[in-house]
Amino acid sequence: MDNGILKRNLLALASRNPSLSIKLGPINPAQNIEFSLSKSGHSIPSLSNSGKPFHSRFDPVKEGERMASTCSGRGYIVCLGFGAGYHITPLLKNQMVSGILVIERDLSFFKRIISEIDLHHFIMDPRVSFLVDESPDRISEFLLSQYLPALTGDIETLTLRTRINTDEDYFMEVLHTIKDVIGTVADDYTVQAYFGKKWFLNSIANLQTAEESTTTLSPIRKALVTAAGPSLEMQIPQIKEMRGNAFLIATDTSLPALLQVGVIPDLVISIDCQHISYHHFLSGFPEKIPLVLDLASPTDLTRFTDNLVFFTSGHPFSRYINTYWRKFPLIDISGGNVSHAAVSLADSLGAREIYLFGADFSYPEGKAYSRGTYIYPYFRSKAGRVHPVESLFFSFILRNKSIQKEPFGDVFRYTTKPMISYKERLEHSAVHLHGRVIGVPGMGIPLSLPESGVKVKDHIPSFFSAGPSSSSWCQFLTQFRDNLKNLQIPDCPLAKYLWELSPENRDIWTTLYPAAATQRKKYGTQPVSGKFILEEVKDWTIDVLNRVLER
Question: 22-31, 224-233, 344-353, 491-500 — which is least confidently predicted?
Fold first, then answer.
Protein backbone atom coordinates (compact mmCIF):
# COMPACT_ATOMS: atom_id res chain seq x y z
CA MET A 1 0.00 0.00 0.00
CA ASP A 2 1.03 3.58 -0.67
CA ASN A 3 0.20 5.56 2.49
CA GLY A 4 0.52 8.85 0.56
CA ILE A 5 -2.22 7.79 -1.86
CA LEU A 6 -4.44 6.59 0.99
CA LYS A 7 -3.98 9.88 2.89
CA ARG A 8 -4.87 11.99 -0.16
CA ASN A 9 -7.98 9.92 -0.82
CA LEU A 10 -9.08 9.97 2.82
CA LEU A 11 -8.57 13.73 3.04
CA ALA A 12 -10.71 14.15 -0.07
CA LEU A 13 -13.37 11.93 1.50
CA ALA A 14 -13.18 13.85 4.75
CA SER A 15 -14.14 17.07 2.95
CA ARG A 16 -16.91 15.55 0.84
CA ASN A 17 -18.12 12.59 2.89
CA PRO A 18 -16.79 12.83 6.45
CA SER A 19 -18.96 9.99 7.80
CA LEU A 20 -17.52 7.53 5.27
CA SER A 21 -13.99 8.76 5.98
CA ILE A 22 -14.51 8.09 9.71
CA LYS A 23 -15.94 4.63 9.05
CA LEU A 24 -12.95 3.72 6.88
CA GLY A 25 -10.38 4.88 9.46
CA PRO A 26 -10.15 1.71 11.63
CA ILE A 27 -10.93 -0.71 8.77
CA ASN A 28 -8.14 -2.98 7.54
CA PRO A 29 -7.81 -3.06 3.76
CA ALA A 30 -8.97 -6.34 2.18
CA GLN A 31 -6.17 -8.86 1.82
CA ASN A 32 -7.79 -10.82 -1.02
CA ILE A 33 -7.39 -8.02 -3.56
CA GLU A 34 -4.41 -8.09 -5.92
CA PHE A 35 -3.26 -5.40 -8.34
CA SER A 36 -1.59 -5.86 -11.69
CA LEU A 37 -0.75 -3.65 -14.64
CA SER A 38 -2.79 -3.77 -17.81
CA LYS A 39 -1.11 -3.75 -21.23
CA SER A 40 -1.76 -0.01 -21.32
CA GLY A 41 0.03 0.45 -17.99
CA HIS A 42 -2.97 1.02 -15.71
CA SER A 43 -3.40 -0.61 -12.33
CA ILE A 44 -6.34 -3.04 -12.18
CA PRO A 45 -7.67 -4.89 -9.10
CA SER A 46 -8.77 -8.51 -9.03
CA LEU A 47 -9.78 -11.10 -6.45
CA SER A 48 -6.75 -13.19 -5.51
CA ASN A 49 -8.77 -16.42 -5.23
CA SER A 50 -10.25 -16.10 -8.71
CA GLY A 51 -7.70 -14.14 -10.67
CA LYS A 52 -10.52 -12.38 -12.54
CA PRO A 53 -9.82 -8.66 -12.93
CA PHE A 54 -12.57 -6.10 -12.46
CA HIS A 55 -11.45 -4.22 -15.57
CA SER A 56 -9.81 -5.00 -18.90
CA ARG A 57 -6.28 -6.47 -18.82
CA PHE A 58 -5.53 -4.62 -22.04
CA ASP A 59 -6.88 -1.09 -21.72
CA PRO A 60 -9.28 -0.41 -18.80
CA VAL A 61 -9.58 3.26 -19.80
CA LYS A 62 -10.96 2.52 -23.27
CA GLU A 63 -13.17 -0.21 -21.84
CA GLY A 64 -14.45 2.30 -19.25
CA GLU A 65 -15.21 4.84 -21.97
CA ARG A 66 -17.23 2.22 -23.88
CA MET A 67 -19.18 1.34 -20.73
CA ALA A 68 -19.83 5.00 -19.88
CA SER A 69 -21.09 5.62 -23.42
CA THR A 70 -23.97 3.21 -22.78
CA CYS A 71 -25.46 5.93 -20.55
CA SER A 72 -27.35 8.82 -22.10
CA GLY A 73 -24.70 11.23 -20.80
CA ARG A 74 -27.08 13.39 -18.81
CA GLY A 75 -29.04 13.22 -15.59
CA TYR A 76 -28.37 11.27 -12.40
CA ILE A 77 -26.40 8.01 -12.63
CA VAL A 78 -26.28 5.27 -9.99
CA CYS A 79 -23.19 3.07 -10.35
CA LEU A 80 -23.38 -0.42 -8.86
CA GLY A 81 -19.87 -1.66 -8.20
CA PHE A 82 -16.83 0.61 -8.22
CA GLY A 83 -13.79 -1.53 -8.95
CA ALA A 84 -11.17 1.09 -9.71
CA GLY A 85 -13.70 3.49 -11.23
CA TYR A 86 -12.48 3.37 -14.84
CA HIS A 87 -16.06 3.03 -16.12
CA ILE A 88 -17.27 6.00 -14.06
CA THR A 89 -14.45 8.52 -14.57
CA PRO A 90 -15.45 9.36 -18.20
CA LEU A 91 -18.85 10.53 -16.94
CA LEU A 92 -17.18 13.42 -15.07
CA LYS A 93 -16.20 15.04 -18.37
CA ASN A 94 -19.85 15.59 -19.23
CA GLN A 95 -21.41 18.61 -17.53
CA MET A 96 -24.89 17.30 -18.40
CA VAL A 97 -24.31 14.57 -15.81
CA SER A 98 -25.86 16.15 -12.73
CA GLY A 99 -24.99 13.53 -10.13
CA ILE A 100 -23.21 10.20 -9.63
CA LEU A 101 -23.92 7.80 -6.78
CA VAL A 102 -21.39 4.98 -6.33
CA ILE A 103 -22.62 1.96 -4.38
CA GLU A 104 -20.08 -0.55 -3.05
CA ARG A 105 -20.57 -3.57 -0.83
CA ASP A 106 -17.51 -3.80 1.37
CA LEU A 107 -15.57 -1.20 3.37
CA SER A 108 -12.37 -3.24 3.41
CA PHE A 109 -12.58 -3.71 -0.37
CA PHE A 110 -13.09 0.02 -0.91
CA LYS A 111 -10.23 0.93 1.43
CA ARG A 112 -7.91 -1.42 -0.47
CA ILE A 113 -8.82 0.37 -3.71
CA ILE A 114 -8.16 3.88 -2.36
CA SER A 115 -4.90 2.64 -0.82
CA GLU A 116 -3.50 1.82 -4.26
CA ILE A 117 -5.09 4.22 -6.76
CA ASP A 118 -5.12 7.99 -6.46
CA LEU A 119 -8.79 8.96 -6.79
CA HIS A 120 -8.85 12.24 -4.88
CA HIS A 121 -9.85 14.27 -7.97
CA PHE A 122 -12.69 11.83 -8.59
CA ILE A 123 -13.79 11.93 -4.94
CA MET A 124 -13.64 15.74 -4.82
CA ASP A 125 -16.05 16.18 -7.72
CA PRO A 126 -19.17 17.70 -6.09
CA ARG A 127 -21.44 15.52 -8.21
CA VAL A 128 -20.02 12.28 -6.77
CA SER A 129 -21.44 10.52 -3.70
CA PHE A 130 -20.43 7.18 -2.17
CA LEU A 131 -22.52 4.67 -0.22
CA VAL A 132 -20.34 1.80 0.99
CA ASP A 133 -21.65 -1.16 2.99
CA GLU A 134 -25.05 0.51 3.45
CA SER A 135 -28.38 -1.27 3.81
CA PRO A 136 -30.98 -1.06 1.03
CA ASP A 137 -33.14 1.05 3.36
CA ARG A 138 -30.33 3.57 3.81
CA ILE A 139 -29.76 3.65 0.03
CA SER A 140 -33.47 4.26 -0.48
CA GLU A 141 -33.44 7.07 2.09
CA PHE A 142 -30.41 8.70 0.44
CA LEU A 143 -31.88 8.59 -3.08
CA LEU A 144 -35.24 9.94 -1.96
CA SER A 145 -33.51 12.92 -0.35
CA GLN A 146 -30.92 13.60 -3.07
CA TYR A 147 -32.52 12.71 -6.40
CA LEU A 148 -34.56 15.68 -7.64
CA PRO A 149 -35.69 14.92 -11.20
CA ALA A 150 -36.79 18.51 -11.89
CA LEU A 151 -33.16 19.61 -11.50
CA THR A 152 -31.08 16.49 -11.96
CA GLY A 153 -32.95 14.99 -14.90
CA ASP A 154 -33.58 11.30 -15.51
CA ILE A 155 -31.97 8.55 -13.45
CA GLU A 156 -29.95 5.65 -14.91
CA THR A 157 -27.94 2.73 -13.56
CA LEU A 158 -24.46 1.68 -14.64
CA THR A 159 -23.32 -1.74 -13.46
CA LEU A 160 -19.83 -3.19 -13.20
CA ARG A 161 -20.78 -6.78 -13.91
CA THR A 162 -17.41 -8.25 -12.88
CA ARG A 163 -17.85 -6.70 -9.42
CA ILE A 164 -21.56 -7.50 -9.05
CA ASN A 165 -20.93 -11.19 -9.75
CA THR A 166 -18.77 -11.40 -6.62
CA ASP A 167 -21.65 -10.36 -4.34
CA GLU A 168 -24.73 -10.89 -6.47
CA ASP A 169 -27.35 -11.20 -3.71
CA TYR A 170 -26.52 -7.82 -2.22
CA PHE A 171 -26.36 -5.94 -5.51
CA MET A 172 -29.60 -7.51 -6.79
CA GLU A 173 -31.35 -6.42 -3.60
CA VAL A 174 -29.97 -2.91 -4.11
CA LEU A 175 -31.14 -2.92 -7.72
CA HIS A 176 -34.68 -3.79 -6.61
CA THR A 177 -34.49 -0.99 -4.05
CA ILE A 178 -33.48 1.49 -6.73
CA LYS A 179 -36.41 0.42 -8.91
CA ASP A 180 -38.78 0.96 -5.99
CA VAL A 181 -37.29 4.41 -5.35
CA ILE A 182 -37.65 5.34 -9.00
CA GLY A 183 -41.31 4.33 -8.86
CA THR A 184 -41.91 6.40 -5.72
CA VAL A 185 -40.05 9.43 -7.07
CA ALA A 186 -41.83 9.14 -10.43
CA ASP A 187 -45.24 9.21 -8.70
CA ASP A 188 -44.25 12.23 -6.60
CA TYR A 189 -42.66 14.00 -9.56
CA THR A 190 -45.77 13.48 -11.68
CA VAL A 191 -47.85 15.19 -8.99
CA GLN A 192 -45.32 18.05 -8.72
CA ALA A 193 -45.26 18.46 -12.50
CA TYR A 194 -49.01 19.04 -12.51
CA PHE A 195 -49.47 20.99 -9.29
CA GLY A 196 -46.07 22.53 -8.38
CA LYS A 197 -46.92 26.07 -9.49
CA LYS A 198 -50.50 25.78 -8.26
CA TRP A 199 -49.28 24.93 -4.74
CA PHE A 200 -47.13 28.05 -4.67
CA LEU A 201 -49.79 30.36 -6.11
CA ASN A 202 -52.46 29.13 -3.69
CA SER A 203 -50.12 29.34 -0.70
CA ILE A 204 -49.15 32.97 -1.21
CA ALA A 205 -52.77 33.87 -2.00
CA ASN A 206 -53.87 32.34 1.35
CA LEU A 207 -51.23 34.06 3.50
CA GLN A 208 -53.30 37.12 4.40
CA THR A 209 -56.24 34.98 5.52
CA ALA A 210 -53.90 32.54 7.27
CA GLU A 211 -52.33 35.41 9.24
CA GLU A 212 -55.76 36.30 10.62
CA SER A 213 -56.77 32.71 11.44
CA THR A 214 -56.93 32.02 15.18
CA THR A 215 -59.21 28.95 15.43
CA THR A 216 -57.96 26.28 17.81
CA LEU A 217 -59.00 22.62 17.88
CA SER A 218 -59.10 20.85 21.24
CA PRO A 219 -57.87 17.28 21.86
CA ILE A 220 -60.32 14.40 21.31
CA ARG A 221 -60.48 10.77 22.43
CA LYS A 222 -62.50 8.99 19.75
CA ALA A 223 -62.86 9.96 16.08
CA LEU A 224 -65.11 8.95 13.21
CA VAL A 225 -63.65 9.75 9.78
CA THR A 226 -65.86 9.65 6.69
CA ALA A 227 -64.49 9.02 3.22
CA ALA A 228 -66.83 9.17 0.22
CA GLY A 229 -66.81 5.59 -1.07
CA PRO A 230 -70.12 3.86 -1.92
CA SER A 231 -70.00 1.95 1.40
CA LEU A 232 -70.72 5.22 3.22
CA GLU A 233 -74.40 4.88 2.26
CA MET A 234 -74.84 1.60 4.16
CA GLN A 235 -72.73 2.84 7.09
CA ILE A 236 -74.77 5.98 7.85
CA PRO A 237 -76.90 4.24 10.55
CA GLN A 238 -73.73 3.13 12.36
CA ILE A 239 -72.30 6.66 12.15
CA LYS A 240 -75.50 8.08 13.67
CA GLU A 241 -75.37 5.48 16.44
CA MET A 242 -71.72 6.19 17.33
CA ARG A 243 -72.04 9.94 16.82
CA GLY A 244 -72.99 10.71 20.43
CA ASN A 245 -69.63 9.99 22.06
CA ALA A 246 -67.26 10.52 19.13
CA PHE A 247 -65.84 13.43 17.12
CA LEU A 248 -66.89 13.31 13.46
CA ILE A 249 -64.30 14.41 10.88
CA ALA A 250 -65.70 14.65 7.35
CA THR A 251 -63.54 14.72 4.25
CA ASP A 252 -64.66 17.45 1.85
CA THR A 253 -65.81 14.81 -0.66
CA SER A 254 -68.08 13.13 1.89
CA LEU A 255 -69.58 16.36 3.31
CA PRO A 256 -72.57 16.70 0.91
CA ALA A 257 -73.42 12.99 1.38
CA LEU A 258 -73.59 13.52 5.16
CA LEU A 259 -75.62 16.71 4.90
CA GLN A 260 -78.10 14.97 2.61
CA VAL A 261 -79.02 12.55 5.44
CA GLY A 262 -78.94 15.16 8.19
CA VAL A 263 -75.54 14.33 9.69
CA ILE A 264 -73.53 17.43 10.72
CA PRO A 265 -69.80 16.78 11.22
CA ASP A 266 -67.67 18.39 13.91
CA LEU A 267 -65.18 19.59 11.31
CA VAL A 268 -64.37 19.24 7.62
CA ILE A 269 -60.93 18.79 6.05
CA SER A 270 -59.83 19.57 2.48
CA ILE A 271 -56.38 19.18 0.91
CA ASP A 272 -56.85 19.33 -2.88
CA CYS A 273 -55.26 22.37 -4.55
CA GLN A 274 -57.57 22.10 -7.57
CA HIS A 275 -60.67 24.23 -8.07
CA ILE A 276 -62.79 21.05 -8.28
CA SER A 277 -62.77 21.12 -4.46
CA TYR A 278 -65.27 23.98 -4.67
CA HIS A 279 -67.94 21.53 -5.88
CA HIS A 280 -67.93 19.71 -2.54
CA PHE A 281 -69.29 22.80 -0.80
CA LEU A 282 -72.01 23.90 -3.24
CA SER A 283 -74.75 22.20 -1.22
CA GLY A 284 -73.80 24.36 1.75
CA PHE A 285 -71.40 24.45 4.66
CA PRO A 286 -72.58 23.98 8.28
CA GLU A 287 -72.50 27.15 10.33
CA LYS A 288 -69.73 27.45 12.97
CA ILE A 289 -68.10 24.15 11.89
CA PRO A 290 -64.28 24.44 11.51
CA LEU A 291 -62.86 23.98 8.03
CA VAL A 292 -59.32 22.57 8.07
CA LEU A 293 -57.40 23.56 4.93
CA ASP A 294 -53.99 22.92 3.48
CA LEU A 295 -52.22 26.24 3.04
CA ALA A 296 -52.11 25.33 -0.67
CA SER A 297 -55.91 24.91 -0.93
CA PRO A 298 -57.86 27.09 -3.41
CA THR A 299 -58.63 30.53 -1.99
CA ASP A 300 -62.32 30.13 -2.94
CA LEU A 301 -62.75 27.67 -0.08
CA THR A 302 -61.90 30.30 2.54
CA ARG A 303 -65.14 32.15 1.72
CA PHE A 304 -67.42 29.45 3.12
CA THR A 305 -66.61 30.14 6.77
CA ASP A 306 -64.55 32.37 9.06
CA ASN A 307 -63.83 29.35 11.25
CA LEU A 308 -60.67 28.36 9.39
CA VAL A 309 -57.75 26.21 10.52
CA PHE A 310 -54.76 26.14 8.20
CA PHE A 311 -52.12 23.43 8.29
CA THR A 312 -48.88 22.85 6.42
CA SER A 313 -47.70 19.68 4.76
CA GLY A 314 -44.53 18.45 3.08
CA HIS A 315 -44.62 21.03 0.27
CA PRO A 316 -41.26 22.88 0.37
CA PHE A 317 -42.83 26.36 0.46
CA SER A 318 -45.12 25.25 3.29
CA ARG A 319 -42.09 24.06 5.25
CA TYR A 320 -40.35 27.36 4.56
CA ILE A 321 -43.38 29.29 5.87
CA ASN A 322 -43.40 27.09 8.95
CA THR A 323 -39.74 27.79 9.65
CA TYR A 324 -39.42 31.48 8.81
CA TRP A 325 -42.84 33.07 9.27
CA ARG A 326 -45.57 31.29 11.24
CA LYS A 327 -45.62 27.77 12.63
CA PHE A 328 -48.77 25.97 11.52
CA PRO A 329 -49.72 22.47 12.64
CA LEU A 330 -48.51 19.66 10.39
CA ILE A 331 -50.68 16.99 8.78
CA ASP A 332 -49.39 14.01 6.82
CA ILE A 333 -50.77 14.17 3.27
CA SER A 334 -48.19 11.75 1.82
CA GLY A 335 -50.97 9.20 1.31
CA GLY A 336 -52.12 11.25 -1.66
CA ASN A 337 -55.80 11.46 -0.63
CA VAL A 338 -57.93 13.38 1.84
CA SER A 339 -58.95 10.29 3.84
CA HIS A 340 -55.32 9.66 4.76
CA ALA A 341 -54.98 13.32 5.82
CA ALA A 342 -58.16 13.08 7.93
CA VAL A 343 -56.77 10.07 9.79
CA SER A 344 -53.53 11.98 10.40
CA LEU A 345 -55.55 14.93 11.74
CA ALA A 346 -57.51 12.64 14.10
CA ASP A 347 -54.24 11.23 15.41
CA SER A 348 -52.79 14.73 15.88
CA LEU A 349 -55.86 15.61 17.94
CA GLY A 350 -55.09 12.68 20.23
CA ALA A 351 -57.79 10.19 19.18
CA ARG A 352 -57.08 6.73 20.62
CA GLU A 353 -59.64 5.11 18.32
CA ILE A 354 -60.13 6.27 14.72
CA TYR A 355 -63.05 4.64 12.89
CA LEU A 356 -62.80 4.97 9.12
CA PHE A 357 -66.05 4.86 7.10
CA GLY A 358 -66.49 4.82 3.32
CA ALA A 359 -62.84 4.04 2.57
CA ASP A 360 -63.41 1.46 -0.19
CA PHE A 361 -60.20 1.92 -2.23
CA SER A 362 -62.17 0.46 -5.13
CA TYR A 363 -65.38 0.86 -7.13
CA PRO A 364 -67.80 -1.69 -5.62
CA GLU A 365 -70.33 -2.86 -8.21
CA GLY A 366 -68.87 -0.29 -10.59
CA LYS A 367 -69.94 2.65 -8.39
CA ALA A 368 -67.51 5.52 -7.89
CA TYR A 369 -68.86 7.51 -4.93
CA SER A 370 -71.61 7.53 -2.35
CA ARG A 371 -74.89 9.16 -3.36
CA GLY A 372 -75.03 12.82 -2.45
CA THR A 373 -71.42 13.55 -3.37
CA TYR A 374 -70.50 16.23 -5.92
CA ILE A 375 -70.18 13.89 -8.87
CA TYR A 376 -73.94 13.21 -9.11
CA PRO A 377 -75.16 16.79 -9.77
CA TYR A 378 -71.98 17.44 -11.78
CA PHE A 379 -72.67 14.59 -14.22
CA ARG A 380 -76.38 15.38 -14.38
CA SER A 381 -75.47 18.87 -15.57
CA LYS A 382 -73.21 17.35 -18.27
CA ALA A 383 -75.60 14.61 -19.41
CA GLY A 384 -77.53 14.60 -22.66
CA ARG A 385 -79.10 12.20 -25.11
CA VAL A 386 -75.74 11.26 -26.62
CA HIS A 387 -73.99 11.03 -23.24
CA PRO A 388 -76.45 9.88 -20.56
CA VAL A 389 -75.51 9.91 -16.88
CA GLU A 390 -74.75 6.18 -16.88
CA SER A 391 -72.15 6.49 -19.64
CA LEU A 392 -70.49 9.46 -17.89
CA PHE A 393 -70.17 7.47 -14.66
CA PHE A 394 -68.76 4.45 -16.49
CA SER A 395 -66.29 6.57 -18.47
CA PHE A 396 -65.16 8.15 -15.20
CA ILE A 397 -64.44 4.71 -13.71
CA LEU A 398 -62.63 3.40 -16.81
CA ARG A 399 -60.43 6.50 -17.26
CA ASN A 400 -57.58 4.80 -15.40
CA LYS A 401 -55.53 2.49 -17.63
CA SER A 402 -54.55 0.24 -14.69
CA ILE A 403 -58.14 -0.68 -13.83
CA GLN A 404 -58.88 -4.32 -12.97
CA LYS A 405 -62.13 -6.13 -12.31
CA GLU A 406 -62.32 -8.62 -9.45
CA PRO A 407 -65.12 -10.75 -7.94
CA PHE A 408 -66.63 -9.70 -4.61
CA GLY A 409 -69.14 -12.24 -3.33
CA ASP A 410 -71.94 -12.46 -5.87
CA VAL A 411 -70.99 -9.15 -7.46
CA PHE A 412 -67.73 -7.45 -8.46
CA ARG A 413 -65.63 -4.34 -7.90
CA TYR A 414 -63.02 -2.43 -9.90
CA THR A 415 -59.60 -1.56 -8.53
CA THR A 416 -56.76 0.61 -9.84
CA LYS A 417 -53.08 0.91 -9.01
CA PRO A 418 -53.47 4.41 -7.49
CA MET A 419 -56.24 3.15 -5.20
CA ILE A 420 -54.19 0.16 -4.07
CA SER A 421 -51.29 2.56 -3.48
CA TYR A 422 -53.52 4.78 -1.31
CA LYS A 423 -54.58 1.74 0.70
CA GLU A 424 -51.02 0.51 1.24
CA ARG A 425 -49.80 3.96 2.28
CA LEU A 426 -52.57 4.24 4.85
CA GLU A 427 -51.76 0.78 6.22
CA HIS A 428 -48.08 1.68 6.48
CA SER A 429 -48.88 5.00 8.16
CA ALA A 430 -51.26 3.38 10.67
CA VAL A 431 -48.37 1.40 12.16
CA HIS A 432 -46.77 4.65 13.36
CA LEU A 433 -49.87 6.43 14.71
CA HIS A 434 -50.57 6.86 18.41
CA GLY A 435 -54.21 5.93 17.93
CA ARG A 436 -55.63 2.72 16.53
CA VAL A 437 -57.22 2.95 13.07
CA ILE A 438 -60.29 0.73 12.58
CA GLY A 439 -61.56 0.21 9.06
CA VAL A 440 -65.34 -0.24 9.27
CA PRO A 441 -66.32 -3.15 6.96
CA GLY A 442 -68.10 -2.24 3.74
CA MET A 443 -68.12 -3.25 0.09
CA GLY A 444 -64.57 -2.14 -0.59
CA ILE A 445 -61.20 -3.84 -0.16
CA PRO A 446 -60.60 -4.58 3.55
CA LEU A 447 -57.76 -2.73 5.25
CA SER A 448 -54.95 -4.61 6.98
CA LEU A 449 -54.38 -2.54 10.10
CA PRO A 450 -52.48 -3.01 13.40
CA GLU A 451 -54.46 -4.04 16.47
CA SER A 452 -53.30 -1.01 18.44
CA GLY A 453 -51.50 2.29 18.07
CA VAL A 454 -47.88 3.03 18.97
CA LYS A 455 -47.31 2.96 22.71
CA VAL A 456 -45.66 6.28 23.47
CA LYS A 457 -44.98 7.00 27.13
CA ASP A 458 -46.55 10.20 28.42
CA HIS A 459 -47.93 11.12 24.99
CA ILE A 460 -50.19 14.12 25.60
CA PRO A 461 -51.94 15.63 22.56
CA SER A 462 -51.65 19.40 22.27
CA PHE A 463 -54.09 21.97 20.96
CA PHE A 464 -54.21 22.12 17.16
CA SER A 465 -53.49 25.73 16.25
CA ALA A 466 -50.97 28.02 14.62
CA GLY A 467 -48.32 29.95 16.51
CA PRO A 468 -47.64 33.70 16.30
CA SER A 469 -46.35 35.17 13.05
CA SER A 470 -42.93 36.80 13.00
CA SER A 471 -44.12 39.66 10.74
CA SER A 472 -47.01 40.60 8.49
CA TRP A 473 -47.64 38.36 5.49
CA CYS A 474 -46.64 41.24 3.21
CA GLN A 475 -43.31 41.77 4.99
CA PHE A 476 -42.63 38.03 4.88
CA LEU A 477 -43.19 37.81 1.11
CA THR A 478 -41.14 40.96 0.53
CA GLN A 479 -38.20 39.48 2.44
CA PHE A 480 -38.58 36.15 0.65
CA ARG A 481 -38.57 37.89 -2.75
CA ASP A 482 -35.52 40.00 -1.89
CA ASN A 483 -33.60 36.98 -0.61
CA LEU A 484 -34.45 35.08 -3.77
CA LYS A 485 -33.31 37.99 -5.94
CA ASN A 486 -29.94 38.01 -4.17
CA LEU A 487 -29.27 34.34 -4.90
CA GLN A 488 -26.95 33.96 -7.87
CA ILE A 489 -27.58 31.35 -10.53
CA PRO A 490 -24.68 28.89 -10.21
CA ASP A 491 -21.97 28.62 -12.85
CA CYS A 492 -20.40 25.63 -11.11
CA PRO A 493 -22.09 22.20 -10.99
CA LEU A 494 -25.49 22.47 -9.36
CA ALA A 495 -24.65 19.90 -6.68
CA LYS A 496 -21.58 21.88 -5.58
CA TYR A 497 -23.52 25.13 -5.51
CA LEU A 498 -26.34 23.74 -3.39
CA TRP A 499 -23.86 22.04 -1.05
CA GLU A 500 -22.05 25.31 -0.33
CA LEU A 501 -25.18 27.40 0.34
CA SER A 502 -26.17 28.45 3.85
CA PRO A 503 -29.12 26.49 5.30
CA GLU A 504 -31.54 29.41 4.79
CA ASN A 505 -30.48 30.00 1.18
CA ARG A 506 -30.71 26.28 0.48
CA ASP A 507 -34.23 26.36 1.92
CA ILE A 508 -35.12 29.20 -0.46
CA TRP A 509 -34.00 27.20 -3.49
CA THR A 510 -35.87 24.18 -2.16
CA THR A 511 -39.15 26.11 -2.29
CA LEU A 512 -38.74 26.29 -6.07
CA TYR A 513 -38.43 22.54 -6.67
CA PRO A 514 -42.14 21.73 -7.22
CA ALA A 515 -42.52 24.67 -9.62
CA ALA A 516 -39.33 23.49 -11.33
CA ALA A 517 -41.02 20.14 -11.99
CA THR A 518 -43.91 21.96 -13.65
CA GLN A 519 -41.45 24.08 -15.64
CA ARG A 520 -39.45 21.09 -16.87
CA LYS A 521 -42.66 19.33 -17.95
CA LYS A 522 -43.16 21.78 -20.78
CA TYR A 523 -39.84 20.74 -22.35
CA GLY A 524 -40.82 17.08 -22.58
CA THR A 525 -37.83 14.89 -23.39
CA GLN A 526 -35.56 17.77 -24.42
CA PRO A 527 -32.20 17.76 -22.58
CA VAL A 528 -32.50 20.83 -20.35
CA SER A 529 -30.00 21.58 -17.58
CA GLY A 530 -31.00 22.07 -13.97
CA LYS A 531 -29.37 25.50 -14.07
CA PHE A 532 -31.61 26.58 -16.94
CA ILE A 533 -34.73 25.35 -15.12
CA LEU A 534 -33.70 27.19 -11.96
CA GLU A 535 -33.18 30.43 -13.90
CA GLU A 536 -36.65 30.22 -15.41
CA VAL A 537 -38.37 29.28 -12.16
CA LYS A 538 -36.57 32.00 -10.24
CA ASP A 539 -37.75 34.62 -12.75
CA TRP A 540 -41.31 33.24 -12.68
CA THR A 541 -41.42 33.24 -8.88
CA ILE A 542 -40.11 36.80 -8.58
CA ASP A 543 -42.65 37.97 -11.17
CA VAL A 544 -45.51 36.32 -9.23
CA LEU A 545 -44.34 37.85 -5.94
CA ASN A 546 -44.04 41.31 -7.54
CA ARG A 547 -47.61 41.15 -8.82
CA VAL A 548 -48.97 39.97 -5.45
CA LEU A 549 -47.09 42.65 -3.50
CA GLU A 550 -48.10 45.40 -5.92
CA ARG A 551 -51.77 44.55 -5.34
Answer: 491-500
User: Which amino acid does the sequence have at 19?
Assistant: S
d(CA 108, CA 132): 10
Assess contact for 75 and 153: CB atoms under 8 A: yes
Q: What is the number of other CB atoms lying within 10 angstroms of the CB of residue 28?
A: 9
CA distance linking residue 460 with residue 458, whole number of Å: 6
What ranges in 1-100 are assigned the alpha helix state H?
A: 3-16, 18-24, 60-68
Please compute, for residue 207, the number of CA atoms within 13 A of its CA located in the half-sphere on the CB side: 26
Q: Distance between CA atoms of 359 and 253, rounded to whole angstroms?
A: 12
Annotate 18-42 with three-state secondary structure.
HHHHHHHCCCCCCCCEEEEECCCCC
Quote the CA–CA distance of 1 and 8 in Å, as a whole number.
Answer: 13
Global confidence as pTM? 0.81
Biggest CA–CA distance in the chain, Å, is 85
Q: Which domains does the chain have, with CATH numbers?
A: 3-187 (3.40.50), 220-373+417-439 (3.40.50), 468-550 (no CATH)
CB 484 within 8 Å of CB 542: yes
Q: Beta 128-132 vs 363-364: how paired, if at all?
A: unpaired
Instruction: Give the tens place of pLDDT for each residue, 127-169.
Output: 899 999 999 999 998 888 788 888 788 899 999 999 999 999 9
Using CA atoms, how far apart are residues 91 and 347, in angstroms rounded to an integer?
A: 48
Residue 520 sits at the vertex; the CA angle it makes with 517 and 523, to the nearest 5 degrees, is: 155
Q: How far apart are CA 507 and CA 487, in angstroms?
A: 12
Q: Where are the alpha helices (DSSP H) in 225-374?
A: 231-242, 255-260, 316-324, 338-348
